[in-house]
Amino acid sequence: MVSESSMKTCKKNLLFATLLLIAGATRAVASAPSAGAPAALAPADLILKNGKIYTDRENGRKWAESLSIREGVIQSIGTTGAIEKEKGPATKIIDLRGKVVLPGFNDAHLHFFSGGISLARLNLTGVKSIGQFKAKLKEFAAANPLKRWIFGLGWDHTAFPGQKYPTKEDLDSVVNDRPVFLWHTDEHLAVANSKALEILHIDATTPDPEDGKILKNDKGEPMGVLLESAASEASHKVDRPSKEELRQAFVDAQEEAIKYGLTSIQGTFARENLEDCIQIVDELHKAKQLKVRISLWGVLEDPEKFAELKNKYKHIPEEWLRFAHLKGFVDGVISARTAAMNQPYSDDASTRGEPNYTQEKLSELVLRANRMGFPVALHAIGDRAVGMAAAAYAAAKKQLFNSRLRNRVEHVEVAGPAIYSQFHGTGIVASVQPSHMIYDDESENYNDARLGKERVKHAFAWKGFLKAKARMAFGTDWPVMPVNPFIGLFGAVYRQHFNGRPARGWLPEQRITLDQAIEAYTLGSAYVTSEEHVKGSIREGKFADLAVTGKDPFKEQGLALSKVPVAYTILAGKITYDGTLPALKPADAKTAAKP
To answer: Tell me: the pLDDT tens digits for 546-594?
Structure first.
């Protein structure tokens, strides 16, 4: 006997498959020969006309004028005259007046709840000195006297004179009556004041945790700077938002993301609040308040827990929440010299960074995850770490008889040409964040000196991967960098910093075209989650997830590309963001918020 729940699941899957075939089937009926007049397409729910539609490239990309949407999918694409024939009594029509329509952006790597939480915290992005750092902290503390803890992020010591870390003394001189904990922009190190260290029980006798370090001064006392697991473990102890705070963070994150044309996201939720986060997504889905599609990552060391959660929440349709990859950290970051390199750092021969796993252990974890049906996402920045990740994936693929799972490497900031071909040959996706290269003046500050003249040629080597026919997916790592994908497009195409330098771009031979960058941010991101058949490009039968830009990105030059506004964000055929409306004044916003 078939259970009622099984019947419901079958019906839902049949409906989903049917929706994906609607457009193609209706077009076939409309064009089929018959004795009478040809059958008409079903009336559209939404028509976008008189625009520049960035269509799928499978049959050679052609710019179209208009498209129609029905039941959440793209029904047809063509001339305005042809599409207008699909107008029905209830059809909504938007005259684009020449605006560009792109596939909805799919951020392949971010931390959504953290991003939402960060919007209400101290933002130190762009500070150029410890003096500016302290001034920002003072201003925030004065404006938020009731906050028991001051949390924040975004400082970058490599932009400070002498590249010196801020210390607990710097923080104490501004705030000494309550704890302060501030993440570095790469979120692999943090600085805390004396009050926070006291609460965390970190003193001269505290040993370094595994895969982490507590920096200490000449007297053996902690300086306040915590690296890698020392920072993350400290954060987990004291930074535990309530479920209501998490709910607000997700709502805020959605509103921030849709302003920039985001329709899909991929990444981790708060590890210590993982099920609370999933419950929030479940509740918002039931209330029809989800404004992004989500591909969630679990913890590589605990695949059983992720499998349990996947089964528990299987009632949430996969097009809205996918239990996708398992994430592991092979190494750290270049800025703290914790990224694992094959050779010592050029500006510090005493270290080359150490991986967090042995090759044997990493390969074992990857194989276990893949055997359970979960692809893996490995954070690997240095060339040694990237090589270890590639070797683990190759070994798993061989063991599993050429498994089709799409494993991925996150960041891949330094990797030689031999790695590019390994990615292509093994089917590994390079999940990279072009905006990492351009935040503040990072690359000018330390990459050349830290990596050396030869090794640096293969840093952020996006063109190298494309030449080797390896797949790429773009993301932001928000809140490490802003969630705005146009900043990433600017970085990938121009390889410049926000000051417009270098004029030809940093390592200009690695620049890619805007077409290639958009595809990495849309179809590439869909590919890595095995969803390229339903999203990632504009084609009949795919999800109607779209970003309509206020300016033509193909006409914007240099830094202007990073500032292209979004006119509309459309998810499943519904407008989630309308940038054409005038911004509300604060008084108007309060009135509008009242029920």
So the answer is: 999 999 999 999 999 999 999 999 999 999 999 998 765 544 444 333 3
Q: Which residue has the higher pLDDT, 29 or 262?
A: 262
- Give the closest residue to 240 by CA, choosing from 288, 286, 284, 274: 274
User: Given this model, what pLDDT does residue 563 score?
Assistant: 97
Name the CATH topology of 112-238: Diaminopimelate Epimerase; Chain A, domain 1 (3.10.310)
Structure-model confidence comparison of residues 502 and 111, the more confident one: 111
CA atoms within 13 A on the CB side of 544: 26
CB contact at 8 A, 342 and 387: yes
Q: Indicate where the chain has its CATH 2.30.40.10 domain(s).
A: 17-98+546-595
Residue 18 has pLDDT above 70, yes or no: no
Give per-residue pLDDT as tens, 401-414. Answer: 878 999 999 999 99
Interior angle at CA 498, CA 232 and CA 100, nearest 5: 100
Distance CA 329, CA 300 (A): 9
Please give the pLDDT value at position 186.
Answer: 83
Alpha-carbon distance of 458 to 175, in angstroms, equals 43
Q: Please, which contacts does 501-505 make with residues 24 or more away whose CB atoms are closer than 8 Å?
A: 501/444
CB atoms within 10 A of CB 324: 25
For the ranges 10-14, 24-28, 345-349, 564-568, the lowest mean pLDDT is seen at 24-28
506 vs 443: CA distance, rounded Å: 8
- What are the E-state strand segments in 320-406? 321-329, 376-380
CA distances from residue 425 to 441, 458, 469 in whole angstroms, order as listed: 35, 19, 9
In terms of CATH, what superfamily is 17-98+546-595?
Urease, subunit C, domain 1 (2.30.40.10)
Report the pLDDT value the prediction gives residue 438, as an integer from 0 to 100: 81
Instruction: Show the tokens assigned to 456.
Output: 């640096």
Q: Where are the beta strands (DSSP E) in 471-571?
A: 471-474, 546-549, 566-571
Which residues 6+ apart lie within 8 Å of 340 measured at CB? 330, 331, 332, 352, 353, 354, 355, 380, 381, 382, 384, 385, 388
Assess contact for 217 and 193: CB atoms under 8 A. Answer: no
Bridge partners, residue 155, by sequence: 184
Q: Which residues does residue 378 pair with via DSSP β-bridges, in sequence order?
A: 328, 409
Residues forming CATH 3.10.310.70 domain(s) in the chain: 112-238
Strand arrangement of the beta sheet that strand 574-578 belongs to: 63-64, 52-54, 100-103, 546-549, 566-571, 574-578
């509300």: which residue's tokens? Answer: 584
Averaged pLDDT, 93-118: 97
